[in-house]
Amino acid sequence: MMRMFNIKNFRIMAIVDLDALSTEFPDNRIVLINGSELVCYPKVVQPEIYSEDNLSLDKSEEYFTVGSKPVVKNAETGKDEMKDFFYKNAFLFFRNAHRILNDSRMFLAPVPVQNGLAYTGTSGFYYPTLGVYIEWWLNCDANVAKDRKGRDALTCRIAGSPLSGSNHCTCVYPDGKIGDISHSPFINVWSTFMKINKRYTKAKQMYEAYTLPEVVDLLLAVGQSRESELETQLDIAEGNTNILKRLYCSLKEQYYKLQNQYKDLGILHYKEELEAFRVEYRTRKHNAELEIESLVAARGEFKSQMKQGIINNVEYQHAITPLTRRRKAIEHDLITFRAEKEVALVKKGHITYSQIDNYLNQDDEK
Which of 46, 199, 227, 311 has the most CB atoms at less than 10 Å from its CB? Predict the structure, then answer.
């Protein structure tokens, strides 16, 4: 049974592993990355061989730079006009994301924008569709629906180097103005788009699709219902929330990684001082244990004399009192020595009490 797109089953890229999703779809269906299924309408004439869109090195060497890319020769008449049409209506499409993600012919509407990377050219970016852009705008780890100043701006064209990360992309603003934009890290931008685009490589060749003008006519003819508008706003809000969650998890992971490195650096920084502290502490502890053993033995001797009647209880108490005081003094001195040394080290910074304790205890275990 087909599952319609709705906010309840909407899941974004930040928590879905695209590589783990199957690209094998049921007959006459496509499965979106949120799990929704769309009914598709097969073309009357099917291709004998389905072309692939695998990432490959650009052997022409035309894409071995990050700057201006080669102009496609013998481009179809009106292709530039259709690209401008896409830019002009990008926000209309975005506001109607819910409707586009519920109609396969809208979803598969071809977008004549040439994306590309240095070294690999346009491979992996062939024939993007309106639905690919919608899913990417909503789900990309990087915020491709805002510019660097936080203003609404949909990234519409990708261009850059996958190695250096240098990029020079194109974005469009709500008023239709075109601008330049760069993203960091760039890999989050191009890899997400490529993975989404390649999911539908076969579907683009098999099923019918509207043209962009037809999509606009349909959207404007029906009008955007309040319910559809709210659904799209909820999709965007949930997408932003999950992107923030992904960012939080990434920062948390980096924090713990840096924290561990910080701890290691603290130990290395105070290595000589810690080792001297450990040797002296062990020596003091060993001497204290020997003296306490002698005190315990002396106490035992006095107790034996009391049992034999050589001394009475009063004399016994007088005899062991200095022994008890001495033992407490030995233990206090050892504890004080360790505490003062630890406090002095911690005050210098870059090391914690637990690190010092672990260092001393590791030696004890040996």
Answer: 199
